[in-house]
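Quick start: what a row looks like.
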Amino acid sequence: MYIFTHTFPAFWSCGLQLFLPSPACGRGVGGEGRSRHDRFSVWMNACLHRKRSRFTVPPRQQVGFTYLWVLMLVALMGMALTVAAEMDSMVSRRDREKHLLAVGRQFQIAIAHYYERMLVNGRNEYPRSLEDLLKDPRYPGTMRHLRRIFVDPMTGKTEWGLVRLGDRIVGVHSLSEQKPVKQDNFEVEAAHFAGSESYTQWVFTYPPNLLLKVNNQSDNTAGTPAKPQSTAPDNAGAWRPR
């Protein structure tokens, strides 16, 4: 239908130029008549030009479509970069959590060595500070239970929250208030870390279930020893290198 309503009239109007002389088509430069071959060339050029103009997208519309595609591409690239950054951040936090568990285990071992190595007045005792783990003051020589104070992987600082029983350190924990990504599938000695709301609840004590034992004793027995307490981040209990 389109051919008959649009194309055919164009060919018909131009085709008349082959047979009907006119001032526009029948005269050339100098007023001389054109041959039938010249008229046919003029007719073909006019028809082809008219056909192309109907199906060619205007340049302004082409620029508009290109602009929309560029905007869509930029938006998709931004979304992809955001998702990639979030995934990278999550992977990084999981790695730091593994490092925190390993460092906490080193503190537990050091406190255990200090506690089990020597009896004072017939009983074991915990260190008074983390510096006592670097050089045990009970020995005349140099006795080390820990080679250095580790950096907290979650804060990037060598400051730790200390869990005390009286004036003695029984454990450490991170000062980060972030909620852990890992919520289950812990080792047996760290099973009580499951469901923690912040890294401050990942408390590394010796023995590992010390807090659970104290809590059970305080629930079932009267007049028990003081419950271990964790120092606040700005308290003097937080260890800082000298």
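That is the whole record. The chain has two domains: 2-55, 93-230. Residues 173 and 194 are 15 Å apart (CA to CA).
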